[in-house]
Design brief:
With about 70 residues, this protein is an all-alpha fold. Helices cover about 75% and strands about 0% of the residues. The protein has four helices and no strands. The protein starts with 5 loop residues before the first helix and ends with a helix.
Length: about 70
């Protein structure tokens, strides 16, 4: 699998961070993004930048959590 560019990773990270801040309380958004999430089996921020499928899973988890 090809390595993602740092610009692409930053874009994906920004996208999920903005969604989390929009739908969750500020502190809850930070906590959600930076702590291992059992249902995702990963830290959401790491998963979001790993692949488009990972980003979609994190976005879904954010919308379910709100």
């Amino acid at each position: 699998m090809p390595q993602r560019s740092s610009a692409d990773s930053l874009e994906q990270q920004s996208r999920v961070a903005l969604l989390a801040r929009k739908l969750l309380d500020g502190d809850a958004a930070i906590q959600f993004l930076h702590v291992h999430h059992d249902a995702l089996s990963a830290r959401p921020l790491d998963l979001a930048v790993a692949s488009p499928i990972g980003r979609a899973a994190v976005e879904q988890a954010i919308t379910v959590r709100r």
